[in-house]
């Protein structure tokens, strides 16, 4: 059994990620459940230029898309609210939408790089308070800019000890050591495996414990066979998680990493 805690749909930033591709990949590669957010909520592009207004999508529109997906496949798909702190607020309309669909929603998602807003800023904090209100984990991209630095996530996790925080990527494009060190210091701070080498995951397990990490992938960012190969056709990193990792940790720890930890922290009924 596998829970993927980091999956997307949407048509934005040069990616076209469809519901059909998510379902195909889950069926083909043995994924039991996916937590899905909408890439359409991105506010800035890869070069940190604002997404043109005609291509912007509101956080309510994006939430409705992933909730609709979850309603079609309630045993396979959960929704994450991708928030937009540069352009929007945690207003009454967002609270109302979550109230009406709380059973399908399992996380509040930040992307400080594509929002170009520091994670530990006042703009972001209002959404963390929303997550705390609903007892939802906060999952956030880390890496690529100061706004998305690991230390900013650590500061907010320390400030909000009742809320669980997940450092997605554990510092994308780094050796992951800073993230591993910070995750090891707080009980409510976790990592995920999205584009994280197996060696870094093993180091986090040694330093912080098996309970502090979840399987995540960015599926289907490299297409419907993201779990198998990248866009150039080379073997995917996730094949190591599916196969080689089983020989490097105990069966009990493997199950915790691949689904049990996520089921517990994200309150997913399997």
Structural features, described:
This protein is an alpha/beta fold. It is 37% helix and 17% strand. The chain has helices at 19-29, 59-72, 92-101, 112-115, 122-134, 150-159, 177-183, 198-208, 238-242, 251-265, and strands at residues 3-12, 15-17, 33-38, 77-82, 105-110, 138-141, 165-168, 189-192, 213-214. The chain has a 9-stranded mixed β-sheet with strand order 2-1-3-4-5-6-7-8-9. Strand 3 (33-38), helix 2 and strand 4 (77-82) form a beta-alpha-beta unit.
Write the layout of secondary structure elements.
Blueprint (H helix, E strand, L loop, with lengths): L2 E10 L2 E3 L1 H11 L3 E6 L20 H14 L4 E6 L9 H10 L3 E6 L1 H4 L6 H13 L3 E4 L8 H10 L5 E4 L8 H7 L5 E4 L5 H11 L4 E2 L23 H5 L8 H15 L5
Parallel strand pairs: 1-3, 3-4, 4-5, 5-6, 6-7, 7-8, 8-9
Antiparallel strand pairs: 1-2
Helix pairs in contact: 2-3, 7-8
């Amino acid at each position: 059994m596998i829970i993927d805690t980091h999956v997307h749909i949407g048509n934005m930033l040069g990616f076209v990620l469809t519901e059909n591709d998510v379902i195909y990949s889950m069926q083909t590669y043995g994924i039991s459940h996916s937590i899905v957010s909408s890439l359409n909520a991105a506010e800035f592009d890869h070069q940190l230029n604002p997404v043109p207004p005609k291509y912007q999508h509101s956080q309510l529109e994006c939430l409705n898309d992933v909730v609709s997906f979850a309603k079609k496949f309630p045993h396979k798909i959960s929704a994450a609210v991708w928030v937009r702190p540069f352009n929007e607020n945690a207003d009454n309309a967002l609270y109302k939408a979550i109230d009406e669909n709380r059973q399908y929603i399992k996380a509040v998602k930040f992307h400080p790089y594509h929002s170009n807003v520091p994670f530990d800023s006042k703009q972001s904090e209002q959404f963390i308070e929303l997550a705390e209100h609903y007892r939802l984990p906060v999952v956030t991209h880390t890496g690529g800019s100061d706004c998305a630095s690991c230390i900013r996530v650590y500061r907010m996790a320390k400030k909000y000890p009742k809320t669980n925080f997940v450092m997605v990527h554990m510092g994308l494009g780094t050796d992951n050591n800073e993230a591993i060190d910070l995750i090891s210091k707080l009980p409510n701070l976790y990592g995920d495996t999205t584009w994280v080498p197996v060696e870094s995951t093993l180091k986090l397990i040694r330093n912080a414990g098996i309970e502090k990490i979840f399987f995540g992938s960015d599926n289907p960012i490299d297409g419907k066979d993201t779990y198998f190969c990248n866009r150039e056709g080379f073997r995917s990193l996730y094949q190591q998680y599916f196969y080689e990792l089983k020989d490097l940790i105990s069966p009990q720890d493997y199950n915790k990493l691949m689904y049990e930890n996520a089921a517990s922290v994200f309150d997913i009924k399997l």
